[in-house]
Amino acid sequence: MNPLLNRLQPYPFERLRLLIRDITPNPALRPISLGIGEPKHPAPALLKETLAASLDSLAAYPATAGLPVLRQACADWVQRRYGVTLDPARQVLPVNGSREALFALAQTVIDPTRDLERGGAVVVSPNPFYQIYEGAAFLSGATPVFANSDPARNFAADWGQIDEATWSRTQLLYVCSPGNPAGAVLPLDEWRQLFELSDRHGFVIASDECYSEIYFRDEAPLGALEAARRLGRDDFRRLVVLTSLSKRSNVPGLRSGFVAGDAQVLQAFQLYRTYHGSAVNPAVQLASVAAWNDEAHVVENRALYRRKFDQVTPMLARVMDVRLPDAGFYLWARVPEDVCGGSDTEFTRLLLAQYNVAVLPGSYLAREAHGVNPGAGRIRMALVAGVDECTEAAQRIVDCITQHRSR
C-alpha cells in the first residue's frame, strides 16, 4: 500500500461520529442537523429538465476537455460575474465538482523531489480549512503548512505567520474565498500580497471559490481572477480558480464544476486528468450549461439564505460570539466559557443529547499550528435546511445555553 495513506487523518464527520456514538438524542424533539454543508434547497427545474432530456448523450465517451458549449458557458459566466475574459479552449476545464479537482491539482503541480535538501515541498493553506487540502498535500509527497485565521480580521488567514524559508519551499497555496468555515473574503490588497509571494517563489495559487454566490451584502465577493485582472495580471500566471454548481445551484450530487486560469497549468492538469479518467458525464455537462447560463435561480437561492441568516444570526448573537459572515452558508460561533467550559466538543455532545441539534466542533476543522488550534472552542453551523428548521434549531441552541447558564 502507498505509505503516504498513513498520513491521512480521519475526516471531521468520522471524528464527529465517534464523538457522539454513545449519545441518545432527545426523542421528544425532531432531529435537526446543522453539521454537514449539504445544500437542501430544491435543485432548479431547468437543470433537471435538461438532464432528463440529455440522457441519449450517455452513449458517447466524454472528452476530458469537456464539450465546447460547456467551456463557453463557463467562460461567459466568468465574464458576466467578474468582468474577466477567458479563452474557453485554453483557460477553462470542466471538472467533477471542485473537491475532486482540488485534490487532483496538487498531484499535477507538486514536484516531491524538489527542495529535498531543505525539507521538501510545502503546501500552504488556511487554518481552519477544507481537509481535502491537507490530504492532497500528503498524497503528493508534500508537507502541509497552515496560516491560522485571525478573529480580529473576521477570521481571514494570517499569511504573515508563514516565514520566508517556508514560502521558498512552497509549491502550492490553497486559498478559500469566501472561506470555510468563517466566510471571510480576501480583499484586493491581500491578493496583491499573495501574487507577489507567488512571483517571488514560483508557487501556484489555487483559489477555492465554491461559496462565491451566497453572500449577504449588495456587493458580490471579489474573485481571484477579478483581482488578477484589476492588478494587471491578465495572463493569470500561476493562478487557477475552482468553483462548482453544488452550492450555487443546490446540486451537490451532480458533481459539476470547472477550473479556470493559467493556460499552462490547465494544459498540464488536463493531461493528468486524461490518465486519471475524470471526464465529466456528458448529460451532466449539458445540464451544467443550462445552470451556468441561468442566474434567476441563483438570485432566488441567495434570497433564501439571506432570510435564514437575517433571522438566525441575531438570535444566536444574544448568547454567543457570532457574526454575519462575508459570504457562504456557515455560522462560526464561539461556545461561551460558562457553558461546557467553552469546549466545542462537549457543547456538541450536550446540544445533541438535550436538544437533538447536530453541529460540528470547530477543532475538527483545524490543526494545531503556531501553538494553537484556531478552531478550538468554536462550532460550525451549516444553515442549509429550510428557514423554519434553521430558526427552530437556533432557538434550541439559545435555550440550551440559557438553561446551562442558569444552573
UniProtKB/TrEMBL annotation:
<dbReference type="GO" id="GO:0009016">
    <property type="term" value="F:succinyldiaminopimelate transaminase activity"/>
</dbReference>
<dbReference type="InterPro" id="IPR015424">
    <property type="entry name" value="PyrdxlP-dep_Trfase"/>
</dbReference>
<keyword id="KW-0032">Aminotransferase</keyword>
<dbReference type="InterPro" id="IPR019878">
    <property type="entry name" value="DapC_beta/gammaproteobac"/>
</dbReference>
<dbReference type="InterPro" id="IPR015421">
    <property type="entry name" value="PyrdxlP-dep_Trfase_major"/>
</dbReference>
<dbReference type="GO" id="GO:0009089">
    <property type="term" value="P:lysine biosynthetic process via diaminopimelate"/>
</dbReference>
<dbReference type="GO" id="GO:0030170">
    <property type="term" value="F:pyridoxal phosphate binding"/>
</dbReference>
<dbReference type="InterPro" id="IPR015422">
    <property type="entry name" value="PyrdxlP-dep_Trfase_small"/>
</dbReference>
<feature type="domain" description="Aminotransferase class I/classII large">
    <location>
        <begin position="32"/>
        <end position="396"/>
    </location>
</feature>
<dbReference type="InterPro" id="IPR050881">
    <property type="entry name" value="LL-DAP_aminotransferase"/>
</dbReference>
<dbReference type="Pfam" id="PF00155">
    <property type="entry name" value="Aminotran_1_2"/>
</dbReference>
<keyword id="KW-0808">Transferase</keyword>
<dbReference type="InterPro" id="IPR004839">
    <property type="entry name" value="Aminotransferase_I/II_large"/>
</dbReference>
<protein>
    <submittedName>
        <fullName>Succinyldiaminopimelate aminotransferase</fullName>
    </submittedName>
</protein>
